[in-house]
Specification:
mainly alpha; about 130 residues; elongated; single chain
């Protein structure tokens, strides 16, 4: 027996193409909206068989979708309810809050996509894919 250290098997690099496609489809959704759902489907279909790095990015993208949809619906509901109450002048603050939610969720969405792409291009898993903020 020899005392030579054995080489540690390195983890094979995961293919980054599909997670990049998901992030790109999410960002393209600002032009047409449909690509957001296509990106969600791609993320769901590939999350189960992905390695740990890509799985964290798919989980992050899926969670980003559902959180953004939830807050988008809240913002739109406030705006619509505010428009209905605009006759009695109570609706204006609701419209302002709804618009602020929509603006904030748009900024939040873009920042999350940029952060996800940054980690992916470095070859790192997203550190907190279940987090609400970043």
């Amino acid at each position: 027996m020899t005392d030579t250290p054995t080489a540690v098997a390195e983890r094979p690099a995961e293919d980054k193409v599909l997670p990049i496609v998901v992030y790109a489809l999410y960002l393209l959704s600002f032009t047409n909206g449909l690509t957001l759902f296509v990106g969600l489907i791609v993320a769901y279909l590939n999350r189960g068989e992905a390695g740990p790095v890509n799985a964290s990015h798919y989980t992050f993208a899926i969670r980003t979708f559902w959180l953004s949809i939830w807050w988008f619906l809240i913002g739109v509901a406030l705006i619509l309810f505010g428009v209905a109450l605009l006759v009695v002048l109570i609706g204006l603050p609701m419209i302002i809050v709804g618009a602020a939610i929509l603006a904030a969720i748009t900024l939040w969405f873009v920042v999350r996509m940029i952060l996800g792409l940054n980690y992916l291009l470095k070859g790192e898993p997203y550190p907190r894919p279940q987090a609400w903020l970043f």
